[in-house]
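Hi R.,

Here's the chain you asked about this morning:
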Amino acid sequence: MGPDYSITQPKTPVGYALLEQLGHGGMGVVYKARQLGLDRLVAIKMIRSGELADPMERARFDTEARAVAKLSHPNIIQIYDFGETESGPYLALEYVPGKSLADALRDSPYPPRQAANLLSILAKAVDYAHQAGIVHRDLKPANILLARDESSQGSESSLITPTSALRPKITDFGLAKRMGSDKLTRTGDFLGTPNFTAPEQAAGKSDVGPVADVYSLGAILYQTLTGRPPFSGATPLDTLDLVRFSEPVPPSRLRLNVPRDLETIALKCLSKEPGKRYASAAALADDLDRFLQKKAIHARPVSSIEKGIKW
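And here is the predicted structure, written out as tokens:
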């Protein structure tokens, strides 16, 4: 995301100096800033519409702050501060220099083992969030930041790119919800990103649970392996229809080097029926680790009969 000069410069939170705009989305805008008291770089996130924000936007912003504050994990962005200015509420978050996974995938897909390793790391972080009662609901490559991790040079966890050690960091919990409570979503509302959203989320169901994040992890794995998301229509509505009613092209048809076991793992995540996916992000991570260790995976390929019915 590049700078958007149509966004009015907000009031600077006390104790910070805004340096440059890093990006913006539908609701938020993010600035690189310096926290003056501690002399450290941070990312300041504010509501894009500022003081004109409606109550729903403010409620979602508050939900994001509370969700991230509950989580302390090396692969999840950390929150440092939460406050309010004349321009509205702000979040001070861990600053991660470098690319997002979406930026990295513009060059080329990852080799299969590097893709599997990356998704194993992400799945374990997502499972940690689920154990804390938080469902992300907007997992996608653009929300995965790649932080340089000097400590992992030469280790298996450094196999995210061929040339450098990078630690993935999950960010943007703006659509997160606490399990068992979703006051901000009504049945029929769509929240998320069409290319990476689960079918039940695409249908506007309000009872979206952890296996929706498992679907999104599968969609990220699919793009990491093939260079493209599993579904991409001419318009967002077309994409949502594909997500709900079409089957993805098997990754090995797009990239001949995709191993059958890794393809099986990705397609299990992308099952239309939530009950046919991995029951948890931890189960997904376990199968990815089994693949990396050259052990038999638990997932089974779709049978010829099932495949015929689907197609």
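One quick note: Residues 177 and 183 are 9 Å apart (CA to CA).

Cheers,
M.
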